[in-house]
Amino acid sequence: MKTSKGWRLRTKDFSKAFIFFNENGQIHQRPVGKFNKQEEKASFIYTPGIYFTNDQLIDNQYLYLKIQLTFALPGKPKFEYLSDANNRFYTQYYNIEDLKQLFPDQIYLGACGIIFITFLVVYLNIHKLEFLFYALYVLFSIVYLLQDNLLIPGYINFYDSLFGYWSVVISQVLINLFYIAFAVHYLDTKKKHPLLHTSMHIIIGFLTVLVITDFLVFFTGNYVAHSYLLNIQRLVMTLFGIVSMAYLLMVCKDKLAIFVVVGSFIYMVGALGYLFTLNKHLMVLGSSIEIIIFSLGLAYKIKLEYEGRLTLQQEVMSKEINVLRAQMNPHFVFNALSSIQHLILQNNRKAALSYLSKFSKLARNVLESSREAIVSLTEEIDLLRSYLELESLRFDNAFSYSIVVDESLETDIIEVPLMLLQPFAENAIIHGLVGKKKGKKCLCIRIQKMGNFCIIEIEDNGIGRIPYISVNKEQNRTSCGMKITQRRLKMLHDSEENKNTLEIVDKFDSKGNPAGTKVIIKLYNP
Q1: φ, ψ for residue 505 (rounded to 5)?
Q2: Which of 129, 156, 330, 503 is the most buried (most CB within 10 A)?
Q3: What is the per-residue pLDDT across 281-296, written as a single tens digit (0 to 9) for each?
Q4: Three-state SS annotation for 198-240
């Protein structure tokens, strides 16, 4: 003892402690505990120790400590002393064994920190409470399991304060609180498991009251009641966890519950291992595995919700397409029957019978395809060809038409909306070619492949859209079929990985006069 003037008494970092020492023949005391110490902690593992000198020993051989504990010590505390000079090897440096002790905690901190930030960002974007509660659950798991090994600037001093210490200790209750809140929303217990939902809300109320009560008893210095409350919480949550897992296994057929049961069981095993062996890494391991399982469970739930929305969207789109097609077909049928009526009134029986025969064939093809919103391009071309034959008869072969299909296109494989092209062909004939007074009247339909797109061009050399619009500006007529088809393409364009476009080009001759119209439809076909 005489070889050094200053020494360090090394022992546990007691909550509140005072050292009694000799000074000028009188007994004095100074605070050395965790909450009332005068020297800051510099190491994440070791306490700075209690400084004393040779002449401060009582009767040249004793030091006395007065200790107040906020928790029960596991085993008897050990005391040893070391020179102040040599003590710096504990407080200022870390050896390999120290780093091995810190390394698992920092891996846990980094992994859980990423998960916390990720799911907090997810919550801020989609506003689903299960993601917020899960993020808070991960946050308090970090705080509780790492405690004084949390490598965050200023954290050591915070943890060594009375409020900081209580915040860390009570986080074990907050872990359970946010875990139960997460499970309520994750499993949708209100809708799927009413009995479990009620019991979970009782537990949430119990934990909330326990946090408030523990705050009051802790800061009034009743540390015995503080420890008693935490033990009650552990017992209640263990029993509730076992009963809840058994209930979910026996009653619930939802795959989402499997993630909760497996994750909770592993976490409980790690927590009980920590309680009985005092090996914190058992609980860290259990918590790590549980967090991974819960993250997979949330990802699986996102997948289920996405698939559900996609299915609903497809059903809605299919029904809307059917409604729109139902609006278009009567419009086409009315035009066809009007044409037959016109031929009958002109006493052109031969043309009327031929028209009626072709119309019945087209109607049969349409009815056979009416159950499907989507048909092959081959079927669509056949329907279009039948329609053009009808219109050609109706107008006494006043116009010519052609359908040119790129040989490289596999028309039996390419799918298009039923009767997609007919409204554009109708507009070209009725509003473009019929009104033309001079020259040949031609309608050309070209279908070709260009990269990942099927390009369909419907081109006529009629009077164009501008003269027709100016003549009919008072009536402000617009093709019903055109409107419907544009809406069908728009719905298909909004669907996943669909890039369909529609473009209408007004043609002009060298003198700037209208010379027809070209409709360009691009159908995405990877």
Answers
A1: -110, 125
A2: 156
A3: 788 888 888 888 878 8
A4: HHHHHHHHHHHHHHHHHHHHHHCCCHHHHHHHHHHHHHHHHHH
Q: At residue 438, does pLDDT exceed 70?
A: yes
Identity of the amino acid at 504: I
Residues 6+ away with beta carbon under 8 Å from 389 = 358
**Residue labelled with tokens 């391009």:** 377
- For 5-27, write each residue's pLDDT tens digit: 788 888 877 777 888 888 888 88
pLDDT in tens, 78-96: 888 888 878 877 777 777 7
The mean predicted confidence, pLDDT, of the chain is 80
Residues contacting 190, CB < 8 A, separation 6+: 184, 197
Spatial neighbors of 521 by CB under 8 A, at least 6 apart, are: 420, 421, 424, 455, 456, 457, 458, 489, 500, 501, 502, 503
| Token representation of residue 175 | 């872990």
Take residue 316 and report the two structure tokens written for it: 């809605």
Who's near 390: CB < 8 A, 6+ residues apart?
336, 339, 355, 358, 359, 362
CA 196 – CA 194 distance, rounded (Å): 6
pLDDT tens-digit map of 440-464 = 999 999 999 888 888 999 999 988 8
Cβ count within 10 A of residue 437:
5
For residue 510, how far is the Cα from the chain centroid? Answer: 57
SS3 string, 141-203, reads HHHHHHHHHCCCCCHHHHHCCHHHHHHHHHHHHHHHHHHHHHHHHHCCHHHHCHHHHHHHHHH
Beta-carbon-side half-sphere exposure of residue 489 (alpha carbons within 13 Å): 21
Asked whether the beta carbons of 241 and 268 are under 8 A apart, the reply is yes
Q: Largest Cα–Cα distance in the chain?
A: 139
